[in-house]
Design goal:
single chain, 197 residues, mainly alpha, Lysozyme, two-stranded antiparallel sheet, 7 helices, 2 strands, 53% helix, 10% strand
């Protein structure tokens, strides 16, 4: 039984090789022009031989016009960046150097550019007193790998609140800080106002 199986595999390999070789030769013969010899005999003893190449060449041209797609480079609003940076620097926050990230993440998720920075002030004094590493927002029991990771993750989460119509700290507070929702919302809104417009 084993011998029969080995022979059938060898046969299959041979057939596969032959088919591959035939396909290869066929593709070459279709792309390489063939030569032929033409013999003309005008008179007995006078034989002329000429060689020529048969080549049929068809050139197809098509002009393809591609509309240029503008390259979009994100540039955060410099006023918003300055507002966040200055506010956090006054408080010696380690998050101050990430002002552009706050603005970019807020634009990406369609949230108020001040809210994530304001929450960090209320929850951890701007990242100075964290419950978990790089978690300046009291965002569950999460540990973030770095400040940018935290900013993007919290911005995404706040964006989900916004998508449900919860677009002010007072409305978000019911879910974000249930035991003290109203007071939490007022504090966050106060800090947002301090950051700027």
């Amino acid at each position: 039984m084993k011998r029969l199986l080995i022979q059938s595999r060898k046969g299959l390999a041979s057939i596969t090789g032959i088919l591959f070789f035939a396909t290869f030769i066929n593709s070459i013969s279709q792309t390489i022009p063939t030569s032929y010899v033409q013999a003309n005999q005008n008179e007995i003893g006078n034989l002329s031989i000429s060689t020529s190449i048969e080549l049929e060449e068809k050139v197809l041209t098509r002009n393809i016009v591609v509309d240029e797609v503008p390259v979009y480079t994100y540039v955060p609003d410099s006023t918003k960046v300055r507002n966040i940076r200055e506010f956090l620097e006054k408080r010696n926050s380690p998050l101050a150097q990430y002002a552009e990230v706050f603005v970019e993440a807020s634009d990406h998720y369609g949230i108020d550019y001040r809210i994530v920075a304001a929450i960090s002030i209320i929850e951890s004094s701007g990242g100075k007193h964290n419950f978990k590493p790089h978690n300046a927002w009291g965002w569950g029991k999460m540990t973030f790998s770095n400040w940018e990771d935290g900013i993007w993750t919290v911005s995404k989460g706040i964006g989900k609140y916004y998508s449900r119509g919860l677009n002010t700290p007072n409305l978000i507070g019911t879910y974000y800080c249930p035991p003290n929702a109203q007071r939490w919302g007022e504090k966050v809104q106060f800090v947002m106002n301090e950051i700027g417009d």
